[in-house]
Amino acid sequence: MMIKKTNLKSIYANLCRYYAKKLGDRPGDLVYRLLCSLKFYKEHGYYPRFKKPRTFSEKIWYRMLFDRNPIWTELSDKLKAKEFVKKRIGERHIVPSLWIGQRAEEIPFEKLPNKFVIKTNHGGGYNIIVTDRESLDRAKTIHKINTWLKASFTYTKFLGMAWAYKNIDPKVFIELFIEENGKIPLDYKFFCFSGRVEYLLITYDRFGYHREKHFYKDFTPLDLWNGADQYAGPFIRPENFEEMIEIAENLSAGFDFIRVDLYNIKGKIYFGEFTCYPAGGLARFVPRNWDFIFGEKWNLKIV
Predict the structure, then answer these.
(1) Do residues 112 and 99 touch, judged by C-beta distance below 8 A?
(2) Is pLDDT of 80 > 60?
Protein backbone atom coordinates (compact mmCIF):
# COMPACT_ATOMS: atom_id res chain seq x y z
CA MET A 1 0.00 0.00 0.00
CA MET A 2 1.35 3.42 -0.94
CA ILE A 3 1.59 6.03 1.80
CA LYS A 4 -0.24 9.22 0.86
CA LYS A 5 1.85 12.35 0.41
CA THR A 6 -0.13 14.14 3.14
CA ASN A 7 0.67 11.33 5.56
CA LEU A 8 4.36 11.57 4.72
CA LYS A 9 4.28 15.33 5.35
CA SER A 10 2.58 14.76 8.69
CA ILE A 11 5.07 12.07 9.71
CA TYR A 12 7.98 14.30 8.73
CA ALA A 13 6.61 17.35 10.59
CA ASN A 14 5.85 15.31 13.71
CA LEU A 15 9.34 13.79 13.64
CA CYS A 16 10.92 17.25 13.46
CA ARG A 17 8.77 18.56 16.30
CA TYR A 18 9.47 15.48 18.43
CA TYR A 19 13.19 15.94 17.95
CA ALA A 20 12.95 19.67 18.70
CA LYS A 21 11.15 18.88 21.94
CA LYS A 22 13.94 16.50 22.91
CA LEU A 23 16.48 19.26 22.26
CA GLY A 24 14.61 21.62 24.57
CA ASP A 25 16.60 24.84 24.97
CA ARG A 26 19.70 23.42 23.31
CA PRO A 27 20.67 24.67 19.83
CA GLY A 28 19.87 22.55 16.81
CA ASP A 29 22.35 19.69 16.37
CA LEU A 30 23.47 18.02 13.13
CA VAL A 31 20.49 15.63 13.04
CA TYR A 32 17.95 18.41 13.51
CA ARG A 33 19.69 20.61 10.94
CA LEU A 34 19.54 17.80 8.39
CA LEU A 35 15.85 17.27 9.09
CA CYS A 36 15.11 20.99 8.72
CA SER A 37 17.17 21.33 5.55
CA LEU A 38 14.63 19.17 3.68
CA LYS A 39 11.84 21.65 4.43
CA PHE A 40 14.04 24.60 3.60
CA TYR A 41 14.96 23.12 0.22
CA LYS A 42 11.33 22.34 -0.58
CA GLU A 43 10.20 25.89 0.21
CA HIS A 44 13.11 27.88 -1.23
CA GLY A 45 14.55 25.67 -3.94
CA TYR A 46 18.16 25.80 -2.74
CA TYR A 47 20.09 23.89 -0.10
CA PRO A 48 20.65 25.98 3.05
CA ARG A 49 23.90 26.93 4.71
CA PHE A 50 22.61 27.13 8.26
CA LYS A 51 26.04 27.56 9.88
CA LYS A 52 27.25 30.22 7.42
CA PRO A 53 24.02 31.88 6.31
CA ARG A 54 23.99 34.31 3.40
CA THR A 55 20.33 34.93 2.60
CA PHE A 56 17.60 36.48 4.71
CA SER A 57 15.78 33.14 4.91
CA GLU A 58 18.92 31.29 6.03
CA LYS A 59 19.52 33.90 8.71
CA ILE A 60 15.99 33.56 10.08
CA TRP A 61 16.52 29.81 10.31
CA TYR A 62 19.91 30.39 11.94
CA ARG A 63 18.22 32.44 14.65
CA MET A 64 15.55 29.78 15.17
CA LEU A 65 18.05 26.92 15.25
CA PHE A 66 20.88 28.39 17.31
CA ASP A 67 20.11 31.70 19.06
CA ARG A 68 18.75 31.14 22.58
CA ASN A 69 18.92 34.74 23.78
CA PRO A 70 15.95 35.28 26.15
CA ILE A 71 15.33 38.70 24.60
CA TRP A 72 13.55 36.94 21.70
CA THR A 73 11.15 35.38 24.20
CA GLU A 74 10.49 38.77 25.78
CA LEU A 75 9.78 40.40 22.43
CA SER A 76 7.61 37.49 21.24
CA ASP A 77 5.44 37.59 24.38
CA LYS A 78 2.72 40.01 23.28
CA LEU A 79 2.23 41.33 26.81
CA LYS A 80 5.91 41.70 27.71
CA ALA A 81 6.47 43.34 24.33
CA LYS A 82 4.08 46.11 25.39
CA GLU A 83 6.17 46.67 28.52
CA PHE A 84 9.31 46.81 26.39
CA VAL A 85 7.71 49.43 24.14
CA LYS A 86 6.51 51.41 27.17
CA LYS A 87 10.07 51.59 28.52
CA ARG A 88 11.52 52.58 25.14
CA ILE A 89 9.06 55.18 23.85
CA GLY A 90 6.28 55.51 26.43
CA GLU A 91 2.76 54.13 26.39
CA ARG A 92 0.97 56.51 24.01
CA HIS A 93 1.55 54.13 21.07
CA ILE A 94 0.32 51.02 22.91
CA VAL A 95 -3.13 49.55 22.22
CA PRO A 96 -4.81 49.44 25.66
CA SER A 97 -5.38 46.05 27.28
CA LEU A 98 -8.84 45.92 28.85
CA TRP A 99 -8.32 42.67 30.76
CA ILE A 100 -5.56 40.09 31.34
CA GLY A 101 -5.93 36.61 32.81
CA GLN A 102 -5.01 32.92 32.56
CA ARG A 103 -8.44 31.33 32.22
CA ALA A 104 -10.98 32.14 29.52
CA GLU A 105 -13.85 31.43 31.94
CA GLU A 106 -12.84 34.54 33.88
CA ILE A 107 -13.26 36.98 30.99
CA PRO A 108 -15.75 39.66 32.18
CA PHE A 109 -17.76 39.79 28.95
CA GLU A 110 -20.53 41.94 30.45
CA LYS A 111 -18.06 44.68 31.35
CA LEU A 112 -16.45 44.84 27.91
CA PRO A 113 -17.40 47.27 25.13
CA ASN A 114 -19.41 46.07 22.14
CA LYS A 115 -16.23 45.70 20.05
CA PHE A 116 -12.96 44.21 21.27
CA VAL A 117 -10.22 41.75 20.35
CA ILE A 118 -9.35 38.58 22.27
CA LYS A 119 -5.74 37.40 22.06
CA THR A 120 -3.28 35.10 23.74
CA ASN A 121 0.29 36.21 24.28
CA HIS A 122 2.21 33.06 23.34
CA GLY A 123 1.92 32.63 19.57
CA GLY A 124 0.69 33.91 16.24
CA GLY A 125 -2.83 33.67 14.91
CA TYR A 126 -4.46 33.33 18.33
CA ASN A 127 -6.95 36.17 17.80
CA ILE A 128 -10.71 36.59 17.91
CA ILE A 129 -12.14 39.85 16.60
CA VAL A 130 -15.46 40.67 18.22
CA THR A 131 -17.59 43.32 16.50
CA ASP A 132 -20.83 42.56 18.35
CA ARG A 133 -20.52 41.34 21.91
CA GLU A 134 -24.15 40.18 22.16
CA SER A 135 -23.90 37.83 19.18
CA LEU A 136 -20.70 36.18 20.42
CA ASP A 137 -20.98 32.46 21.18
CA ARG A 138 -19.27 32.61 24.55
CA ALA A 139 -19.12 28.87 25.21
CA LYS A 140 -17.49 28.22 21.84
CA THR A 141 -15.13 31.16 22.35
CA ILE A 142 -14.06 30.01 25.81
CA HIS A 143 -13.39 26.50 24.49
CA LYS A 144 -11.28 27.85 21.61
CA ILE A 145 -9.23 30.10 23.89
CA ASN A 146 -8.56 27.32 26.39
CA THR A 147 -7.45 25.07 23.54
CA TRP A 148 -4.98 27.78 22.50
CA LEU A 149 -3.74 28.28 26.05
CA LYS A 150 -2.92 24.56 26.33
CA ALA A 151 -1.07 24.52 23.00
CA SER A 152 2.63 25.10 22.49
CA PHE A 153 3.10 27.36 19.49
CA THR A 154 6.72 26.21 19.28
CA TYR A 155 5.86 22.55 18.92
CA THR A 156 2.83 22.94 16.67
CA LYS A 157 4.32 25.33 14.08
CA PHE A 158 7.41 25.57 11.87
CA LEU A 159 8.77 22.07 12.64
CA GLY A 160 9.34 23.05 16.28
CA MET A 161 11.91 25.72 15.37
CA ALA A 162 10.16 28.81 16.76
CA TRP A 163 12.09 28.64 20.04
CA ALA A 164 11.26 32.20 21.14
CA TYR A 165 7.70 31.14 22.03
CA LYS A 166 8.70 28.04 24.01
CA ASN A 167 9.10 29.62 27.46
CA ILE A 168 6.25 32.15 27.36
CA ASP A 169 3.76 31.80 30.20
CA PRO A 170 0.41 31.60 28.34
CA LYS A 171 -2.15 34.30 29.10
CA VAL A 172 -5.33 35.56 27.50
CA PHE A 173 -5.98 39.27 27.19
CA ILE A 174 -8.55 41.65 25.75
CA GLU A 175 -7.53 44.63 23.66
CA LEU A 176 -9.39 47.71 22.60
CA PHE A 177 -10.72 47.25 19.06
CA ILE A 178 -8.96 49.69 16.77
CA GLU A 179 -10.44 50.30 13.32
CA GLU A 180 -10.36 52.71 10.42
CA ASN A 181 -13.58 53.47 8.58
CA GLY A 182 -15.15 50.38 10.10
CA LYS A 183 -12.39 48.08 8.87
CA ILE A 184 -9.26 46.44 10.27
CA PRO A 185 -6.45 48.99 9.74
CA LEU A 186 -3.52 48.47 7.39
CA ASP A 187 -0.63 46.59 8.97
CA TYR A 188 2.76 48.27 8.37
CA LYS A 189 5.63 45.81 8.89
CA PHE A 190 9.04 47.51 9.07
CA PHE A 191 12.14 45.41 8.41
CA CYS A 192 14.79 46.93 10.67
CA PHE A 193 18.47 46.04 10.35
CA SER A 194 20.91 47.31 13.01
CA GLY A 195 18.35 49.88 14.11
CA ARG A 196 17.57 51.16 10.60
CA VAL A 197 14.44 50.63 8.54
CA GLU A 198 15.39 49.34 5.10
CA TYR A 199 12.10 47.94 3.78
CA LEU A 200 8.47 47.62 4.77
CA LEU A 201 5.58 45.35 3.95
CA ILE A 202 1.99 46.58 4.08
CA THR A 203 -0.78 44.07 4.62
CA TYR A 204 -4.15 45.07 3.17
CA ASP A 205 -7.42 43.60 4.49
CA ARG A 206 -5.60 41.10 6.68
CA PHE A 207 -8.71 39.18 7.74
CA GLY A 208 -10.55 39.49 4.43
CA TYR A 209 -9.05 39.48 0.94
CA HIS A 210 -5.46 39.39 2.13
CA ARG A 211 -3.03 41.26 -0.13
CA GLU A 212 0.48 42.58 0.39
CA LYS A 213 3.02 44.98 -1.07
CA HIS A 214 6.70 45.55 -0.27
CA PHE A 215 8.30 49.00 -0.36
CA TYR A 216 11.67 50.63 0.04
CA LYS A 217 12.12 52.91 3.03
CA ASP A 218 11.18 55.88 0.81
CA PHE A 219 7.86 54.19 -0.05
CA THR A 220 8.90 53.19 -3.57
CA PRO A 221 7.26 49.82 -4.40
CA LEU A 222 9.51 46.76 -4.69
CA ASP A 223 9.24 44.19 -7.45
CA LEU A 224 9.05 41.39 -4.89
CA TRP A 225 6.60 38.55 -4.33
CA ASN A 226 6.48 36.53 -1.10
CA GLY A 227 3.53 34.28 -1.86
CA ALA A 228 0.51 36.48 -1.12
CA ASP A 229 -1.67 38.23 -3.69
CA GLN A 230 -0.23 41.66 -4.54
CA TYR A 231 -2.10 44.85 -3.80
CA ALA A 232 -2.44 46.84 -7.01
CA GLY A 233 -2.79 50.29 -5.50
CA PRO A 234 -3.18 53.14 -5.10
CA PHE A 235 -0.29 53.30 -2.65
CA ILE A 236 -0.97 56.10 -0.19
CA ARG A 237 1.96 57.24 1.92
CA PRO A 238 0.78 58.39 5.39
CA GLU A 239 1.44 62.05 6.11
CA ASN A 240 3.28 61.08 9.30
CA PHE A 241 5.23 58.26 7.67
CA GLU A 242 8.55 59.68 8.89
CA GLU A 243 7.26 59.43 12.45
CA MET A 244 6.49 55.75 11.85
CA ILE A 245 10.07 55.26 10.63
CA GLU A 246 11.39 57.02 13.75
CA ILE A 247 9.29 54.83 16.06
CA ALA A 248 10.34 51.62 14.29
CA GLU A 249 14.01 52.60 14.46
CA ASN A 250 13.80 53.55 18.13
CA LEU A 251 12.20 50.20 18.96
CA SER A 252 14.69 48.22 16.87
CA ALA A 253 17.82 49.89 18.22
CA GLY A 254 20.35 47.36 19.51
CA PHE A 255 19.09 44.42 17.44
CA ASP A 256 20.83 43.09 14.33
CA PHE A 257 17.38 42.43 12.89
CA ILE A 258 13.80 42.73 14.10
CA ARG A 259 10.54 43.42 12.32
CA VAL A 260 8.43 46.13 13.96
CA ASP A 261 4.72 46.10 13.09
CA LEU A 262 2.73 49.31 13.43
CA TYR A 263 -0.74 50.67 12.68
CA ASN A 264 -1.57 54.21 11.59
CA ILE A 265 -5.16 55.27 12.18
CA LYS A 266 -5.95 58.83 11.13
CA GLY A 267 -2.48 59.92 12.16
CA LYS A 268 -2.44 57.98 15.44
CA ILE A 269 0.37 55.40 15.43
CA TYR A 270 -0.02 52.18 17.39
CA PHE A 271 2.48 49.40 18.07
CA GLY A 272 1.33 46.00 16.79
CA GLU A 273 4.04 43.48 17.62
CA PHE A 274 7.67 42.47 17.21
CA THR A 275 8.45 39.64 14.84
CA CYS A 276 11.69 37.74 15.36
CA TYR A 277 11.02 35.04 12.75
CA PRO A 278 9.05 36.58 9.85
CA ALA A 279 6.87 33.87 8.27
CA GLY A 280 9.00 31.30 10.08
CA GLY A 281 11.59 31.76 7.35
CA LEU A 282 9.24 30.03 4.90
CA ALA A 283 8.27 32.96 2.67
CA ARG A 284 9.85 32.43 -0.75
CA PHE A 285 11.47 35.46 -2.39
CA VAL A 286 10.57 35.91 -6.04
CA PRO A 287 12.82 36.86 -7.72
CA ARG A 288 15.30 35.01 -5.51
CA ASN A 289 17.95 37.73 -5.56
CA TRP A 290 15.84 39.65 -3.02
CA ASP A 291 16.57 36.89 -0.49
CA PHE A 292 20.27 37.72 -0.88
CA ILE A 293 19.67 41.49 -0.89
CA PHE A 294 17.72 41.35 2.39
CA GLY A 295 20.36 38.97 3.76
CA GLU A 296 23.17 41.40 2.97
CA LYS A 297 21.45 44.06 5.10
CA TRP A 298 21.44 41.72 8.11
CA ASN A 299 24.75 41.88 10.00
CA LEU A 300 23.96 38.67 11.85
CA LYS A 301 25.50 38.15 15.28
CA ILE A 302 26.86 34.60 15.28
CA VAL A 303 26.30 32.87 18.63
Answers:
(1) yes
(2) yes
DSSP 8-state code for residue 169: -
Q: Is the peptide bond before 238 cis (omega within 30 degrees of 0)?
A: no
Question: What is this structure's pTM?
Answer: 0.94
> Minimal CA–CA distance to 68: which of 152, 167, 153?
167
**d(C-alpha 219, C-alpha 264), whole Å:** 15
Rounded to 10°, the helix 30-44/56-66 angle is 150
Nearest to 183 by CA among 228, 131, 233: 131
Domain boundaries in the chain? 24-94+181-303, 96-176
Distance of CA 263 to the CA centre of its chain: 14
Residue 1: per-residue pLDDT: 45
Handedness of CA 28, 33, 35, 41 (dihedral sign): positive
The set of residues, in sequence order, having a beta carbon less than 8 Å from that of 237 and lying 6+ positions away, is 219
- Angle, helices 56-66/289-297, rounded to nearest 10 degrees: 60
Query: CA distances (Å), 142 to each of 109, 124, 135, 176, 226, in order?
Result: 11, 18, 14, 19, 34
